[in-house]
Amino acid sequence: MKKIVYVLVAGVMVLMLAACGSDSAVEELDQNDTEKAEAKTGSDADKEEKPPEEEAKDEDIWTYYNDAKWSDDYNGLKMEIQKAVVSDKAPTMEDENANASAVGVKFRMENTTDGKFTFYPDQAVLVTSTGEQIDMPDMWVSDNIGGEIDKGVIKEGNIIWYLERGHAGDIEWIKLEFSGHQGPEDDFESEMKEYEIELKLK
After folding, report:
1. How large is the C-alpha radius of gyration of the chain?
2. CA 73 from centre of chain
3. Contact residues for 32 (Cβ-Cβ < 8 A; gap 6+)
4. 41-67: pLDDT as tens digits
5. CA distances from 125 to 122, 134, 163, 167, 175 (A)
6. Could you report the per-residue pLDDT of 160-191, keeping only the tens digit for each?
């Protein structure tokens, strides 16, 4: 009988010690969390890193005009300008640290027919509200999306013009002029379709 009592008492004491041990472990974890939180509000909060999206915006050299849009459906060839951009800090092929002035558009074409079309938006003439006329985009930095567009084909990309007198940030509107026709590239009998598109930026 005495043995049973001793075993019970020993068991209760072990449980009490274990409980005390677990309480101190929880307190230690709480204390570590508090110290980490205090350390974060001290040193880490001072550094407070920006999210990658904000850093990218800070470094972005382009001003975006997402409302500068245009679209047309020419006999099943769907064309659209999705946005326009300008910059007075654009790099060039010769010097990536150059601060050149440039204008760009995001262009998309989709042939929804079984035939072919031939258009050259990547050779469009650019006219700006600041009095410039650039007869050809920069072919080195622009995407090659012009030419023959076969059935079901989607062509999209950026078209960039470098300004001669600069001040892209002052531009209030741009106008693009390009042409093409329905049919393959070597179909010289097709009627030409001329486009003159004006986009308001400001």
Report:
1. 33
2. 26
3. none
4. 444 444 455 454 444 444 689 999 999
5. 9, 6, 12, 18, 8
6. 999 999 999 999 999 999 999 999 999 988 99
